[in-house]
Design goal:
The structure holds two protein chains of two kinds. By secondary structure, chain A is of the alpha+beta class. Chain A has helices at residues 3-28, 78-92, 95-98, 115-123, 136-145, 188-205; strands at 35-36, 47-49, 55-57, 66-71, 102-107, 129-132, 151-152, 163-166, 169-172, 178-182. Chain A has a single domain (3-205), classed as Glutaredoxin. In chain A, the strands form three sheets. Chain A has a six-stranded mixed β-sheet. Chain B has two domains: 1-30; 35-152, Immunoglobulin-like. Chain B has one helix spanning 2-29; strands at residues 35-43, 51-59, 65-71, 75-86, 89-94, 99-101, 106-109, 114-121, 130-138, 144-152. In chain B, strands 1, 2, 3, 4, 5, 6, 7, 8, 9 and 10 form a ten-stranded mixed β-sheet that branches. The radius of gyration of chain B is 21 Å and the shape is globular. The termini of chain B are far apart. Classes of the chains: A alpha+beta, B alpha+beta. Chains A and B meet through helix 2, helix 4 and strand 8 of A and strand 4, strand 5 and strand 8 of B. Bound molecules: copper (II) ion. The site of copper (II) ion has 4 residues of chain B, from strand 8.
């Protein structure tokens, strides 16, 4: 055993790793408008209820990529803005790669968002947008899994209250692996480009 | 004879149109209002929840003005909000002190930013409807400015 050789080998390995990191950082990352989260978080898993009030799990999306947003229907500003951009981007995708993409809106405000309310809200954006919600425990389990959070603010005099929530869209591939985080400042064209690139890539991989 | 009458009638119509155009131009341009509200719109949200009101308020006077309140018979409660995104977390902040606009400046109420938070819709609204909103200011007389907002689709940005 020659210690000089070992350290030389580990130096070589570090240099190689650095070179790969620089290469990925230099060109790979930059092509996405959103954030590439491939391999950073666990695959999609949840127990929630759907727009019919029926219990559902991630199986509802099995084999299909899904773009998921956390919000609440008493959110008239950033939620409709983001959901409308996502729906418009999905419509812009070529039929061959966009047809399987599912859209999901997870309400973190189950006290006000019953299944009927969820259905009315999501139908306004796209008929392929599925509304989901659940108990506090179920919602916390899902949001914690993706390192996002939500909270409720003090109610006003009329009893209404505001909800804070994650502003990003999470995109999962057909294997339900988290792949992209689309931040709220992206426009329709940027979201469409990222979705097209991701879906095209995962299609040719399989 | 008949042709002459037609020409005369055409001339009268043209003159009236010209006069009308001139009057319209004067009304639009001449006595500049110290305050303008451009593109006032309410973005439709189905389901009976709150909707957002957007516009651009221009202060053309020579002293600051402040939007302090808004009220509408079409909604049970109206607040002035700003959406703030910090560390990936979105929330709406109530603008308790209203919104100040310096002379020559404007306040833009737009998606993911300042908005009128129009809560408890009192009637079923449809795209294309007009909604009356009274904006209340400090630093300008009169204080109350009734503005007609147009209901636009939920997908409008
Ligand atoms: Cu608001």
């Amino acid at each position: 055993m020659n210690p000089a050789r070992v350290s030389l080998r580990s130096v070589t390995a570090s240099v190689a790793a650095l070179a790969i990191a620089l290469f990925l950082g230099g060109c790979g990352e930059d092509e996405w408008h959103g954030k590439n989260i491939t391999g950073l978080m666990p695959e999609l898993e949840f127990e929630l209820i759907d727009e019919n009030g029926d219990p559902v799990t991630e199986e509802v999306f099995a084999g299909e990529p899904v773009a998921m947003y956390f919000g609440f229907t008493h959110c008239p500003d950033i939620c409709p803005t983001t959901l409308a951009r996502l729906a418009a981007a999905a419509r812009r995708l070529p039929e061959s790669i966009g047809k399987n993409l599912q859209l999901a809106f997870v309400s973190v405000d189950p006290a006000r968002d019953d299944p009927d309310q969820l259905e009315r809200y999501t139908d306004a954006f796209s008929d392929r947008m599925l509304g989901l919600t659940g108990t506090q425990k179920q919602l916390r389990a899902l949001t914690r899994r993706y390192r996002v959070t939500f909270g409720y603010e003090e109610p006003g005099a009329d009893g209404s209250y505001e909800v804070s929530h994650s502003s990003a869209i999470l995109v999962f591939d057909a294997e339900l692996e988290p792949r992209l985080m689309l931040l709220d400042d992206l426009n329709v064209a940027q979201i469409a480009e990222d979705l097209e690139r991701l879906l095209e890539g995962s299609r040719s991989d399989s | 004879m008949k042709q002459g009458k037609v020409i005369l009638a055409s001339a009268v119509v043209a003159l009236v149109a010209l006069l009308g155009g001139a009057l319209w131009w004067v009304a639009q341009v001449a006595p500049e209002s110290p305050l303008t509200v451009d593109n006032p719109r309410v973005r439709m949200v189905p389901g009976g929840g709150p909707m957002a009101g957007y516009m651009e308020i221009g202060n053309h006077g020579d002293s600051p003005i402040r939007l302090v309140a808004a009220d509408s018979p079409a909604f049970g409660n109206v607040m002035i909000h700003r959406t703030v995104v910090r560390d990936g977390q979105a929330r709406m902040e109530h603008q308790r002190d209203g919104v100040e606009i310096q002379p020559g400046d404007s306040a833009v109420f737009k998606p993911r930013d300042l908005h009128l938070m129009l809560m408890q819709p009192q009637t079923e609204l449809e795209v294309g409807d007009t909604v009356a909103v009274v904006l209340t200011f400090e630093g300008i007389e009169p204080a109350d400015w009734p503005i007609a907002f147009t209901v636009v689709p939920v997908t409008s940005q």
